[in-house]
Design brief:
Layout: H1 8-24, H2 35-38, E1 46-48, E2 51-52, H3 54-71, H4 84-94
Antiparallel strand pairs: 1-2
Length: 95
């Protein structure tokens, strides 16, 4: 679950979803409970109670990128014609 400022009732609902995912062996994360590990500050990392701002999104994206690259291997498709649009988009973003 993405970070959110949940009510106790909503957290109970998500806890049920997490328990069900556990029974199916589905990996999940409760980023609200990981707020300390991620360094979230609810006064400066949120646009509103339900959405991260750029600072919070950067913290979450950094953690998720590190998790994914440490647990999975990804093929590098740079330079392949079928993926040229990705490279063009990246160049545009860097500009």
């Amino acid at each position: 679950m993405l970070p959110d400022q949940l009510s106790a009732e909503s957290q109970e609902l998500y806890n049920g979803v997490f328990a069900y995912a556990d029974t199916l062996g589905i990996r999940h994360f409760d980023f609200d409970r990981m707020a300390g590990e991620l360094g979230f500050d609810y006064t400066s990392d949120f646009l509103n109670p339900g959405h991260l701002n750029i600072f919070g999104a950067q913290k979450l994206s950094t953690w998720l990128g590190e998790y994914l690259t440490s647990h999975y291997e990804f093929a590098d498709h740079r330079g392949e014609p079928a993926y040229s649009q990705w490279e063009e988009n990246a160049a545009y973003q860097q500009h």
